[in-house]
Amino acid sequence: VQLQASGGGMVQAGGSLRLSCAASGRTFGGFLMAWFRRAPGREREFVAADVWLGGSTYWPHYAASVKGRFTISRDNAKSTVYLQMNSLKPEDTASHYCAAVRRQGLTTTDDDYNYWGQGTLVTVSS
Hints:
Distance between the termini: 37 Å
Shape: globular
């Protein structure tokens, strides 16, 4: 699976961005899809995941720092996962990475993911 992330940019605090992650190489369904981010000088952290529960059932999960502001979604027909980011704050400034692993259930540990896209930079000014 190859992942291609896009949609980063520079916005003012309170603004919005939508990140996209397009997957290619194999079928998209049945994968746990997630977004992580790494701010300058900090370790990579979990942001959000779209969890496969089996069949065609998916469940979104968010880090506490973004819950209520970010929304993860996927379009299996387009093999694309999205991260809608609203009410952005300067502390959201980071390179954002999409990641994938074929499994049911949630993991927020980056080592558990075996497919990664390149980072897309989000910069939020105050």
